[in-house]
Design brief:
Radius of gyration: 33 Å
Largest sheet: 6 strands, mixed
Oligomer: single chain
Helix content: 40-55%
Order of helices and strands: EEHHHHHHHEEEEHEEHEEEHEHHEHHH
Low-confidence stretches: 501-513, 521-543
Mean pLDDT: 83
Length: about 550
């Protein structure tokens, strides 16, 4: 039975964030400001589209020479800095498309493997927790065999594209492009869709440059919040300041991380900026971003020194439990609910609010780290493995595990908390087996998720999930050692007994005034009370 369990991965401290992004609204823009921004966005967006087309045509033949040639062509119609920003964005977009292509090939291969396995089994073969069983009927078997052929064709086509270095990228987004054919379902008019499509393809961005004035020469923001843009060469006639610059009437003031941003531009350190229009709201925004030096994470032993909070991630709440450094649960379980229905903005706000409450509670508890499962449902989301369990597939597909981890790491770093990732295997099963029933009281209901939080916390602390190990044999108690795993050998009082509740003598009255019954005398030597002296008979025969 032990051989059926997979090997558990070691726990580790998650590295902290390496970048920062803040945003502010550009208010009180004049009509001329908006016309200039639209003209710049359309012009540079067209250049970006043309450059992306050239990059995709190069495929795997791309190199430093072709990159330099593309940049020279763009410089003639913009500037050297704008051309550099466009080519870098193009390279990042092509690289992202390649990674998505590799993930798509891996997903198709997993589906093909599952289909072949299930088709090879007799009809009605039951499945296990680790592998799906055979299909239920001949009709289902036939339909799945046709789907296998379709997936094999898709996989072969995707592999050919991968080997040829051919990717398919849509500037503005494939989803928005497909929305054009479903305007009624999206409740959009054609002009509304057209506005979203055009604004999504604009390009008003500039990378930061250390050593340049205020950290950016193309889009410059002064400490007072004044925003100016270096116009491309064909639009230089729209400038209202020297050196072909246009100064916006709006000013910005970053409420979040404003002091950190001000320190960077005061030292002329690189800050990247992006200006975009929110088509639905009709508002312009300025986003500032910069890189942070890689922060050395604290050692795992330091993160475990003051205890741990174990967090179980579920479809509608975080189940958290506080544990001391020995792995003992303290207090009652805590639950932080959220609602993942509705729009993407609503879901993101719900996750952010729940994480804020969790981190604030961790700060009050005085721990140095939070333990969380290193969840990845990528192999579990395949339609072929859980085809008949539609609700389960929707459940695991709707859990934003990647976004939760990214947000938790960045938000916890601001409060000086470390994140310890643990292997999620068997945490719910073993937590419910060893912790749910012992901790359940009439005034403290324990769910399976609360017990899983304890299991996660204990694994993050380096303790086994089980409450106590098997006791040593009675005749080997001296050399088998103590059976508890709650404390290490050096912990004070680990071998001691619990202090008595009262100072009453043995057999005396209890605090309630009632006398408890004395233990009855044992009839065997093995069960003799400790107050009686037992002497072994001599083995020497007597006359």
């Amino acid at each position: 039975m032990v051989g059926d369990f997979r090997e558990l991965a070691a726990s580790f401290v998650v590295p902290g964030p390496c970048g920062v992004a803040v945003r502010d609204r550009l208010k009180h823009l004049t009509p001329q400001d908006e016309r200039v921004l639209r003209a710049v966005g359309e012009h540079q967006g067209a250049l970006a589209s043309r450059d992306l087309k050239a990059r995709c045509a190069d495929g795997l033949e791309h190199g430093a020479d072709t990159w330099a040639a593309r940049k020279r062509d763009l410089t003639k119609e913009s500037s050297s800095r704008i051309a550099g920003a466009i080519t870098k964005a193009t390279h990042d977009q092509w690289a992202l498309a390649r990674r998505c292509q590799a993930a798509h090939i891996q997903k198709l291969a997993a589906g093909i493997k599952t289909l072949r396995h299930r088709l090879s089994l007799p009809l009605g073969t039951p499945g296990t927790k680790r592998a799906a069983g055979g299909y239920r009927s001949k009709n289902e078997w036939f339909r799945k065999s046709r789907r296998l052929a379709a997936l094999e064709d898709r996989h072969a086509a995707a592999v050919r594209d991968w080997q040829a270095g051919r990717v398919r990228v849509v500037r503005g987004g494939k989803r928005l492009l497909n929305t054009r054919h479903h305007l009624t379902q999206a409740q959009l008019a054609e002009d509304q869709w057209r506005q979203r499509w055009e604004t999504g393809r604009w390009f008003i961005a500039a990378d930061g440059e250390s050593g340049k004035r205020f950290g950016n020469e193309t889009i410059r923001v002064t400490p007072d919040g004044e925003v100016s843009i270096k116009l491309p060469a064909p639009l230089a006639h729209l400038a209202n300041a020297r050196h072909g610059r246009y100064i916006l009437a709006s000013t910005v003031a970053f409420a979040h991380r404003g002091a950190e941003w001000a320190d960077r531009i005061a030292a002329n350190r690189a800050v990247a900026y992006r200006i975009h229009l929110h088509a639905d709201r009709g508002r312009w925004y300025l986003t500032a971003s910069w890189q942070r030096p890689v922060v050395q994470t604290i050692p795992l032993e330091t993160a475990r020194a003051r205890g741990m909070i174990g967090v179980d991630t579920n479809a509608d709440h975080f189940a958290a439990y506080l544990l001391d450094r020995h792995g003992n649960p303290i207090g009652d379980p805590h639950r932080f609910p959220y609602d993942l229905s509705g729009t993407a903005g609503h879901r993101d706000a719900q996750i952010r609010h729940a994480l804020t409450r969790l981190i604030n509670w961790a700060g009050r508890a005085g721990v140095a780290a939070i333990g969380i499962e290193d969840l990845d449902f990528t192999p579990e989301k395949t339609r072929e493995k859980h085809g008949g369990r539609k609700r389960f597939r929707q459940l695991i597909s709707g859990m934003p595990t990647g976004k939760v981890k990214a947000r938790l790491v960045s938000m916890a770093a601001e409060q000086g908390l470390a994140i310890v990732a643990v292997d999620p295997a068997y945490t719910s099963m073993w937590g419910a087996q060893h912790w749910q029933k012992p901790l359940t009281t009439p005034h403290r209901p324990m769910s399976r998720h609360d017990a899983a939080g304890i299991a996660i916390g204990r694994r993050a602390l380096g303790h086994p999930i089980r409450r106590r190990t098997t006791p040593p044999p009675h005749d080997q108690s001296d050399r088998a050692g103590h059976r508890t795993v709650q404390a290490g050998p050096g912990a004070r009082g680990r071998e001691g007994t619990r202090p008595p509740t009262t100072d009453r003598p043995p057999g005396g009255p209890s605090p309630s005034g009632k006398r408890k019954r004395e233990p009855s005398a044992s009839k065997t030597a093995r069960d003799a009370p400790s107050t009686q002296q037992w002497v072994q008979d001599s083995l020497t025969p007597t006359g």
